Amino acid sequence: MEINRLEGIIEAILFTMGESVEIQKIASAIGHDVPTTKKIIHRMQDRYGEENRGIRIIELEDSVQMCTKTEMYEYLIRIAKQPKNYVLTDVLLETLSIIAYKQPVTRLEIEKIRGVKSDHAVNKLVEYNLVCEVGRMDAPGKPILFGTTEEFLRRFSIQSVDELPGINPEQLESFKEEAEEEIQLSLNV
After folding, report:
1. In the chain, fewer beta carbons within 10 Å around the N or the C end?
2. Tell me: domain 90-188, CATH 2.40.50.180, correct?
3. 8-12, 113-117, 132-136: lowest mean pLDDT where?
């Protein structure tokens, strides 16, 4: 099958599905292996990037999705209702970062790190579709384990959580010292 036809099929699949599609499933649908399918998709990504097009294809772990280029949003807003703008407060960002770096993680583990109840923050992040239930811990009460979603990857423009920035070792040491000082202060009170 010629390359233009394969690109058309992939484009139709991504457009119709409207959400991410595993590359393995696309490869199966077009009758090619995963490496060949990835090459075709990367060629399409390059073409969409070079041409004056309103769409792009993004990669999310082992999946791809067709979406609108960000520079086109202002025109969409003129047509559609103003999209709901979620505000990520410092509390939500702190909770989200704990989940992103420690996943899968329970609500209790999040609260131990933050030092305060986190029910509201976790519930808001679930509502915003940035985190979700990824399973249950094999422990008494079977607490829920939380992890990040594909929407999290999209919002932060990363392909996987492996792309999250690392913590500076000097800063980590500073955090440890501050925590130890706080523990000593609380013991002396």
Report:
1. C
2. no
3. 113-117
C-beta neighbour count of 14 within 10 angstroms = 21
Average pLDDT over residues 123-138: 93
Residue ranges with strand state E in 7-114: 21-22, 55-60, 63-68, 105-106
In the chain, what are the domain boundaries? 3-78, 90-188
CA 135 distance to own-chain centroid: 17
The top-level CATH class assigned to 3-78 is mainly alpha
The answer to whether the beta carbons of residues 56 and 25 sit under 8 Å apart is: no
- Is residue 188 pLDDT above 80, yes or no? no
**What are the CA-CA distances from residue 165 to residues 47, 100, 120, 160, 161 (Å)?**
29, 11, 26, 11, 9
